[in-house]
Amino acid sequence: MEALFSPTKGANTLPLSKRLKLDTHAAHERVDEAIMALSPFSSLKGYQRFLIVQYQFQRRTAPLYHQQNLGAWLEGLPERCRYDAVISDCQDLALSLNDLKTLSPEPTIDSQAAALGWLYVNEGSNLGAAFLLKYASQLGLSASFGARHLAPSDSGRGLHWRSFTAQLDAISLSDEQTNQALSGAREAFQFVKSLASIALNNQ
């Protein structure tokens, strides 16, 4: 995959979370555009398209939250998983999970370091979900119906995110592993973008 970011001077000395943010900036913007193309908060149908994307992404990342090797790096990782919440949201809106499981091929995450990049993307999406939950409430959805996966953690979004990035930055990675993490994050964003395109075309 062609690099989406040309490293600037001094980038290699940044903490991993900062490098991930810089490296995936353009990819993140493209995903935001793809998500907004679904018109997720203009109607329940639009929100269902958005929810389909969320389900697919959470389904792919859910196993990462229960890997012991990753849990050794990131304390409390299983509790961060939002897969059960998004399943409940789909059930609230009468979406068939069996139908959703076949919508797209799932990419391979071929290393533990690459998995860090995927987790970075997923955890980062929760940080920005406050605005999404507010918009979802205008459709009659809430943290207890239809939009559970957008709810903040008990500790609050900011602290939840800072705890994650602090642990991420404390991991000692080789240059090769760092590159794998960056590649994993780019692949995660590309996967979400492809899911959004599929959801838009299938509705």
TrEMBL record:
Species lineage: Bacteria, Pseudomonadati, Pseudomonadota, Gammaproteobacteria, Oceanospirillales
InterPro entries the record matches: Haem_Oase-like (IPR016053), Haem_Oase-like_multi-hlx (IPR016084)
Protein name: Biliverdin-producing heme oxygenase
Matching CDD domains: HemeO-bac
Top-level division of the source organism's lineage: Bacteria
